[in-house]
Design a protein that fits this description.
Blueprint: H1 3-19, H2 26-29, H3 55-63, H4 93-101
Length: 136
Amino acid sequence: MNIRIAIALASMVGPAVQAAEPPAKAAATAAPTATQAPRAPLKLGIGDVRKYMMPNEYRAALNVPDADKTTVIVQGERPVGPLQSELPQPVGLGAIYSLFRHPTTAWRLFVPDTSAYAPQPGPPDVVPPREFRWGP
């Protein structure tokens, strides 16, 4: 193989391999093996409710006309991932590869990358600023 072709191929494949995400651990998604004991199902019942509530609270909860006794509402937040436009742009030969791989976002290669100049979160100022006073 010609050495120039090998160098060109290595320089084009290298950034793509570095940009690829590492594979997920297979042990986390695999079924339990013979060495692992199968887990017991979760017990979501609370038992006798009267142990946790006063009798007047229990009667009030049962007699509420608008209460939907079969509905459970769980509220939570899912962290939002970074937007594609906020990710750093590749440089060098990786930029050429990205140009052909993602032609709809190729315009980002021709504008300045503002994410490189964004202020990075750091430790807070521990020492307060000095006060200026006239006289004692």
